[in-house]
Design goal:
Length: about 290
């Protein structure tokens, strides 16, 4: 396949994923005072399995940049709710400004940690039909990075402000085309240098990497699966493979589901077959 054909297919996949109208949540709750510190809740539309519904804590992608918020992933959240999951789709502070830098240090990480800590109480309050003791972390792209990071807080360096156990009881993590290894992503210039920007630029990258890079926070002891399109031009397969290799070296087996002829966006596009694969991976951990 020529570069032009691959680029055209990637553009068509992105157009399809963004063609769905945003879906309004059943409820929205704040986990902090900033306008971006909110979680959208989508109640399960049907019974998906025995007992109370598992919770999917969902983190959207967009290279940690402000123009991309949780609304673009709401059709995927709705598809999970229709499968029988209770979905908590979290917003978090992202980079902004004229240069549209990626991420805000330490705010982006503060928010993910705070949202996870607030999740059980909010679920009990807003979705009594759900069981926060059966939570799966899921994220796409930059959100996949944050999902992997959120599951690894207990192995963060002891001097990290985010170190410690979360009140969320995790069944596992399903990271969709995640920016899972910040060093490899930086070398490949993923999303225009987003990984380096997330950590505050070149002068801070090495110092902050042990606190932010999931590939350095292993083993976690938590069941983890990466779902990756082989034709992904935005976050190449090599990033997921590097994380899986790091896990293996740390003595942990991470599942990697590779999808042929699939790029970056079909994983969250309810109209795409790849999305059904992603949902099934979540279901296997959740139920």
């Amino acid at each position: 396949m020529t570069d032009d054909v691959a680029a055209a297919r990637a553009a068509a996949e992105e157009k399809s994923a963004f063609s769905h109208a945003p879906v309004d949540p059943d409820a929205t709750a704040a986990y902090g005072d900033h306008p971006d510190q909110v979680i959208d809740f989508f109640a399960p539309r049907r019974i998906g399995g025995p007992g109370p519904a598992p919770v999917v804590f969902l983190l959207h992608g967009g290279a940690w940049r402000a123009p991309y918020d949780r609304r673009h992933i709401s059709p995927f959240a709705d598809s999970l709710a229709r499968r029988g999951f209770a979905v908590a789709s979290a917003e978090y502070r992202r980079g902004g400004g004229d240069d549209c830098v990626a991420g805000r240090w330490p705010d982006t990480f503060d928010d993910v940690a705070a949202a996870l800590d607030a999740l059980p109480a909010l679920v009990r309050q807003l979705m009594p039909q759900a069981d926060p003791r059966r939570t799966v972390l899921t994220g796409h792209s930059a959100g996949g990075h944050l999902a992997l990071w959120g599951a690894a807080r207990h192995v963060l360096p002891a001097d990290s402000p985010w170190h410690g156990g979360s009140p969320v009881t995790l069944r596992g993590v399903v990271a969709l085309a995640p920016i899972a290894d910040l060093a490899i992503a930086d070398k490949l210039d993923v999303c225009g240098g987003a990984a380096r920007q997330l950590l505050g630029g070149e002068e801070n990258f090495a110092e902050r990497q042990p606190y932010a890079d999931p590939a350095l926070l292993l083993p976690t002891g938590i069941a983890t699966t990466l779902v990756q399109g082989r034709a992904d031009l935005d976050v190449p397969q090599a990033v997921a493979e590097s994380y899986a290799e790091a896990a293996a070296k740390a003595g942990e087996m991470v599942g990697v589901t590779l999808l042929e002829d699939v790029g970056h966006f079909p994983l969250i596009d309810p109209a795409a077959d790849a999305c059904a694969v992603a949902v099934e991976e979540i279901a296997q951990l959740a139920w």
